[in-house]
Amino acid sequence: MNRRKIVQTAAATGLLVGTAMVPASQRKKTPRDFTGPFYPVDPRNRTNDLISGTPRSEVLHLSGRVLAPNGAPFEGALVDIWQADPEGRYKHPRDRGQDRLLEEFLYSGEAATDACGEFAFRTYVPGRYGSRPAQHIHYKVWVQGREVLTSQVYFDELGGDRGFARSSEAAALQTVRLVQVDDDNVRASIDIVI
What we know:
Blueprint lengths: L2 H10 L46 E9 L10 E6 L24 E5 L5 E7 L11 E8 L2 E10 L12 H7 E2 L2 E4 L2 E9 L1
Parallel strand pairs: 1-9, 6-7
Antiparallel strand pairs: 1-4, 2-3, 2-5, 5-6, 8-9
């Protein structure tokens, strides 16, 4: 069964349960995860739309909320993401294939949370690469200019964390489901608790 069919089946059977449904009194803090070797060295792209031209791969609409453990939203938090392109390449001098980077893709971006603590990105579904077969997106959360969390998002339908999260409990808090919007777009949402 292909990924698109799995996502459609999960949606139809009501299996798409996110952290938004967890009562506030039970919210656990999002676990820290590795920054990885490819945190951007260039100035940050101050946009939440990482695709600057015509998309040539499946587009991911990643949204979420930054919350306190009691469920209160963090307005004005900055969510800073970086990731591999669909071919598994990072825009970083230490990664191979810098001559084959996608021209329309920015590889990193940022979004500020609104009054409800919500943020959104338009990006690509990240590809896998040999040393890290778990498809993922790295992120940092900044509050008042101070880094408060570095973590990663994994995707259930793409194999989850494949054992790369720090623990099984961490993996459960970092893994989200992909929902097929149409042939070219998927969406996913995560609550980040700091």
